[in-house]
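Subject: Sanity check before I submit

Could someone independently write out the structure tokens for this chain? I want to compare against mine line by line before I put it in a report. The sequence has 119 residues.
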Amino acid sequence: MGRILPTVLLLIASNAFMTFAWYYHVKQKGWALVTAIVVSWLIALPEYILQVPANRLGHLEHGGPMTLPQLKIVQEAITLVVFSVFSVLVAKEKLRANDAVAFGLIFLAVVVSFWGRKG
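---
Independent answer below. Compare away.
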């Protein structure tokens, strides 16, 4: 459990940057496409600076507790939490019940991925 928390915290931080890089420009009606691309790339750079160490720290081959599929599934679940917060607070868009059910199914995938995994 010692490397799971730092891995998850780095993934949360990296996903915050990536969510802004992917979606913030959508609400910026005055931005030209080129501006949106350049700003998104500048926001995405810190995402990679956080994502790479998170994956290395969390992966089995670097002393972490997770396989690559487990890292990816955890990252996707984190992405949904970060995106949900972004969608409501920044984009001012409400999540529907269908969205919550779909997100719940992905969280269930995290549980399924870790079933039977020996410490």
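---
OP: Matches mine. For the report I'm noting this point. Helices lie at 4-23, 33-58, 68-89, 97-114.
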